[in-house]
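User: what does the whole thing look like in 3D?
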Amino acid sequence: MLLFQSEEWIDKWCKRNHLERGEFLTISQVWELSKLWYGNRMSLEYHGRSMDQVAEVFKQAGLTAKFWYV
Amino acid sequence: MKEDIAVWQVRHFVYAHIQDTTRPPSVDETAAHFGLSTNEATELYKELHNRHALFLDVDEVAIRMANPFSGIPTDFRVHANGKTYFANCAWDMLGIPAALHCDAVIDAVFTESNEPIQLEVKDDKVTNGNLLVHFPLAFSRWYDDLVFT
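Assistant: Here's the predicted 3D structure for the full assembly of 219 residues, as structure tokens:
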């Protein structure tokens, strides 16, 4: 996942690399997602995540588009 | 299947080692910590790789990624708790303070323009909140090629 100043820079990068644009989130959205995704990563109790749990994290982060389907 | 308890204890040791030292432990370091042979520790690393709990370099049994931490230098440097960690990507640069539950100053580089940018996570807020992180692949394809992802 790469960092850009604006959508224009994303499009420039996609065009130069002959790639279709994926999805983008703001840094603020990614911070909220990070807390859900990584908040318990240092724990001995963290044993990975099932697909249902992944879907729940995306749902809690408001990521409901097809792009985020598990 | 390897003994689950051993697998997850090794995973936890890897993460604690990174938190303390900023780098992942070698197979030999992990073997020494648990009193295992190098081959036994190697098998546990491979098992964690197969479970997507960490990502090994293809050519050697070394940890390339223990998300959000990177085992190699990257454009995403995260200064937290008096240490500097490398993150795998623009998401993981925020994943490190999220995992460590701490504030952080992040030195990153914009893709395409190559301009440097500094962000800060402080008191549960991140600066430059309108910058964008691009996810090139849908979730269903993330593990096809994790380095590209």
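In plain terms: The longest strand of chain B covers residues 116-122. The longest helix of chain B spans residues 4-21.
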